Amino acid sequence: MRFEIARGGSGLTYEIRNIVLIANKLKEYGMDIIWENIGDPVQKGEKIPDWMKEVLTEIIKEDASFAYSPTKGVDTTRKFLADRLNKRGKVQITPEDIIFFNGLGDAIARAYSSIQVDARVIMPEPTYSTHFMAEVLHASFPPNTYRLNPYNHWFPDMRELEQKVKSHKSIVGILVINPDNPTGFVYPAETLKQIVQIAKDNDLFVVFDETYINIVYNGKKTVPLSDIVGDVPAISMKGISKELPWPGSRCGWIEVYNADKDPIFARFINTIFHQKMSEVCSTTLPQLAIPKIMTHPEYQNYLDERKKHYEKLSHIAYDILKDVPCLMVNKTNGAFYMTVVFNESALNNRQKLRIEKREIKQFVENLAKETIEHDKRFVYYLLAATGICVVPLTSFFTPLLGFRMTLLDKDVAEFERTVKTIAEKITEYINSAK
Fold this sequence. Notes:
- This protein is of the alpha/beta class.
- 41% of the residues lie in helices and 14% in strands.
- Helix 2 (50-60) packs across helix 10 and helix 4 runs parallel beside helix 5 (129-139).
- The longest helix is centred in the last third of the chain and has 23 residues, at 299-321.
- The chain is globular and about 65 Å long.
């Protein structure tokens, strides 16, 4: 080429997918992989019920399901979502306050890229990779974060959040992921109200990623942003990838609250909309399906059964891992991930796991020679020794060392074997350098 055409990278890696490249290489050596890296219920054995498939079969018979939708989304679906929200009576929106995207990844990318480069959104630490990468890429500068504390059940450090908001004048918004990915923490209503109040007191907007808002269990309670937002400018991000579940639909939306109360925020939302307009629209078929599936008489029962399953697996994982030396483990109460933290100084670059096959051993030892985080080194050895593919916690942009796994396996006995194997290998790994 005449000159370099690729834009310089940020150095950030989406490890949830990147670890797949390592796992696929091990598959070439004959390793069977147990995929615990990504939150895809279907990949982990979730059977989509016949009634849901029948709904889609009927919709696809309609020619309209093949057509473009309006840029903001299918009118009837946006009205359905707005009416359902307005019935709660806490906030009132119109269909025009809802914009559909090709999955929340699309919504996240467009939202952050619509913010001026010198304006920042403070986010939780650890945080979901897509939010972090989009925010950093828009500003080309390290992020502002507030810590979630694993020694306090992953509660956010509210004092730190308030102090940073007051001292960093570049911060214009606060991100909350509720229930949280990767930690599985469910925010109590009072904590959410405090965050909204901090935003109000400092003239900020809030972004709540509520992908898992209807996947809460173990007796925990939370509230959607719409119940507590008051008159604070805000965006709620929602989707069907995890809830229906239909991750391949690439269908998510934002609900905009109180844009009429702040002209600066209104211009920000308009910028997002015009970005979406350049793409014409989002996928039509899944939008048409949302009202029919969510009002189906079997829908709530199906969702409740899935939540019971995640609750059961959260107990199994917690009971096995909580007594493993050098670990800090909190029970997952929402979404379907468990995040495990290693105690400080538990990991080093001398630890190993026994690997039988010579080619695999050589491969992982070459990876371990690189300058990598200690938890990533453990994840590589675990993968090479057992085929279990988890995600290092430092990939969620935190100095905490650990890993995230899913609670999705439909085979309970197989899941229990997987967790027990992880527990055994953690002990073996930690003791290997003594």
